[in-house]
Amino acid sequence: MDPRICRDTLERLLTEEAGTLARLEELLDKEHEFLTSNDVDELEKAGEARQSCIAAMIAIEDERRSLCRMMSVSADAMGLDKLLNWCDPSHQLKTRWAACAQRAAHCRSLNDRNGALVAARLKRVEGMLGVITGRASQPKVYGSKGSYEVSGRSDRVIARV
Question: Do 114 and 28 touch, CB atoms closer than 8 A?
């Protein structure tokens, strides 16, 4: 393959990835707004849009890995670096690759933030349900079928050999 064709392909993939990451970043911020405002309908729509972005990211990554295999380099960061050195001696794409990596890391932190908020809310709801059902002070243990068993009896079996 000609280095220019390889560079053009990588440039297109980086452009698509940068755009998808920008959309994902916006969606994760909106998702946080919907979580804090308890807007369930909009949160569901945002979740569907987020999944669409993730699917697009997977497709881009698959195409990049395919290009690496075709060029007989490993599909990891070292292989991509080798490919970029070969087809882009000006290192313009390396700068764009680094920017995408930085934006992806930011998206991960936004997703972690949203996940922590969801986990805290689930824990709160679980606690409230425990109070309502009168099981808040009872220990939660797994039963023989792998699900939580909470019993009011004091003669329950906690483990079997």
Answer: yes
Residue ranges with strand state E in 52-146: 141-142
Give whole-number Cα distances, 158 to 42, 80, 161, in Å: 43, 53, 10
* Rounded Cα distance, 46 and 34, in Å: 9
End-to-end Cα distance, the chain: 63
Stretch 124-137: mean pLDDT, rounded? 72
* Nearest alpha carbon to residue 8 among 75, 92, 76, 79: 92
**Average pLDDT estimate for 150-155:** 51
**Are 73 and 84 a contacting pair, CB within 8 Å?**
no
State the Rg of the chain over Cα. 24
According to DSSP, the residues that pair with 141 across neighbouring strands are: 149
Res. 112 pLDDT band, cuts 50 70 90: very high
Nearest to 61 by CA among 100, 102, 115, 99: 100
| Residues belonging to the chain | 161
CA distance to 45, 92, 153, per residue, from 80 (Å): 35, 14, 61
